[in-house]
């Protein structure tokens, strides 16, 4: 069960906050799937949709990162944030984009349709495929990235490919998937 922002807490933050506190409140509301809170904050200040917190994480990073289960409201929040200026290519600390951290194929598909680069790299040169291989939430996002045409043989700055990472983690199901899509 998701936690819910109370209107009293929201009203306090909304009326008494500076820009960084408002951004943090929006991040938390996005992360928790609080659509009504997100829309109220953004409609009052459109520039906040693309704000970044202390480590560069945006509200879009918050909602796509996964909080146990994807619900319809999450997709609505993603669309709303993007419609109101959120950057699908925003890089947080370490160069991590929203596409790098989502475990959900529906979100992968939505982000790519809205302009996310399938082969965007973080500061280490790792792509979303590599993050998906390291994710313990199964293979659904990995499969979607591959279906959409992500580069299966990209190597990061350490010379590792997604296949190398899958082998090192003994993720045989992911090794099979990667090989099916041409990993060498």
Automatic annotation (TrEMBL):
SUPFAM superfamilies: Ankyrin repeat (SSF48403). Keywords: ANK repeat, Repeat, Signal. Pfam families: Ank (PF00023), Ank_2 (PF12796). ANK repeats lie at residues 61-93, 124-157. InterPro entries: Ankyrin_rpt, Ankyrin_rpt-contain_sf. Residues 1-19 form the signal peptide. The keyword Ion transport does not apply. This is Ankyrin repeat domain-containing protein.
